[in-house]
Each structure stands twice: as C-alpha cells, then as structure tokens.
Amino acid sequence: MKTGTIYLVGAGPGDPDLLTLRAARLIEQAQVIVHDGLVSREILDLAQPDARLISVAKQRARHTLPQDQINLLLIREAIAGRDVVRLKGGDPLIFGRGGEEAEDARAAGIPVEIVPGISAANGAAAASQIALTHRDASSIVSFVAGQCKGLSDQDWSGLAGKGRTLVIYMGVKTSGQIAEKLMADGLAPDVSVAVIENAARSGMRVVRGLLAGLPDLIKQERIKSPALIVIGDVTARDDIAVSNLAVEAAQ
Asked: What is the pLDDT of residue 243?
C-alpha cells in the first residue's frame, strides 16, 4: 500500500479569502483533515462532504490530544495510505508546532509538505491597519509566546522599546505577568499597546492603552482568545486611530 502524505497547512486568521490557492485546493481534495480549534467553520466547509474532519482543538491547560498523540494520529493515517491535511490557524511554523509534527513524520518515513499561511500577527496587523514596521516608528519586529514555560525566567530586554514592535501570542491569560516582566526588563510603563481580538473575523475588536494598564484593559474590555497583543509606537500613531475607530464602528 502506498503511504499517504502529510500536508501541514496554514489556514490563516480565519477568513477563507485569505487562504493560499494551494491551501484551498488541498482542503477541497482532502480525505482526512486534522484541524485546530482556531480554524473557522467557513474554512472547514470547503472540505468534501465525505472528508473526515478530526478536531484536536487545544485550550489553555486542556488538550483534546497531547501533542505526541496528534503526531501519532497523523502518522497512522498516512501509513494507512491516506493523505492528511493538518490544518492550523495562522502559519504552521509560527507557534503552531508544525516543526515537531514534521520531524516525527519524517522520522517515520512519511512524506511531508508544508504550506505557509498568513500568520496571526500579519493577519491581525492588516485587519487593524497597524503597520508592524514603519520608517518613523519601528524597524524590528519580535514574536513571543505569552504562555511558554519559564516565562518569568526569560530575558525579554531589548525586544520592545524605541524603534521596535513586540507581538505577543497567547498572552491574554498572562497579561499581568507579561506587563510586569517587560517593565522589570526596562520597558517604560507608558509604552503604547493594542489588543486585537478575533482578527480578520466577524466580531473583531481593537482596543488600545498603555503597558502598565494592559491587564486592566483586558479585564475591563472582557477580551477573550484568540487575541494578539501588540506593543510599541506603531500602535499609537494618529493615522491608525482613525482606522481603528472605523473598524469598531463597523462591528
């Protein structure tokens, strides 16, 4: 029996129009789709009626399947001769654990193809019209995970500040620790921040404030995941204030 191929596919921020052509074609042709919770229903609806959809949605501190079991699931399906689309929100190689899945698949002798997607950071920035880099404000962008192990022990000094933009994934629940850590590592309390909830989806919101007030902002606005935190002068520019008001007014 011929071994199937595992396709690690980025689903982007959720809007089907933002899929790559390659991603859309693979979804439409897939026999098996193993998908995250961040993949929108509109994208899953592109699959064939007889395609098998398997959710491995993760939530904070609770996984439908541990990561090693997800890897084994993909390998078993491919060994059985089925092509598998592993569908991930954003891009599979940016906080998507696509590297781990590709490594295990290759070790098992399974062919792997990685199809990039619009990352959550790029999708959120475009939807909210926040330029992550700008000649007048920022020439460096850093991406960090707000729920990584050993958060308090990491050195984030230099990741944010003058001429820099910091994008934090999965930081809603740990926003208090994040703000304290950044200020302890030398970032000024009055640095501008933006929190982008449900980027590029219906119900998208953009709220802005200052670093010292980040946890209170998230609590008061009842921000829920999925949401990104953007820190830096690019979030406070006068030209985006107008566009953000327009985004909020359209909801």
From this structure: 44
CB 229 within 8 A of CB 163: no
Side by side, the strands of the sheet bearing 138-145 are 138-145, 163-169, 227-231, 192-197, 205-210
- What length is written for the chain? 251
Is residue 71 within 8 A of residue 101, CB to CB? The reply is yes
- Whole-model pTM over 0.85: yes
pLDDT along the chain (251 residues), means of 10: 94 94 98 95 96 85 78 97 96 95 97 97 94 94 82 79 94 94 92 94 92 97 94 80 44 46
Using omega within 30 degrees of 0 as the cis cutoff, is the peptide bond preceding 111 cis?
Answer: no
Contact yes or no for 225/124 (Cβ under 8 A): no
The secondary structure of 75-141 as a DSSP string is HHHHHTT--EEEEESB-TTSSS-HHHHHHHHHHTT--EEEE----HHHHHHHHHT--SSBTTTEEEE
Q: Kindly list the catalytic residues.
A: 36, 58
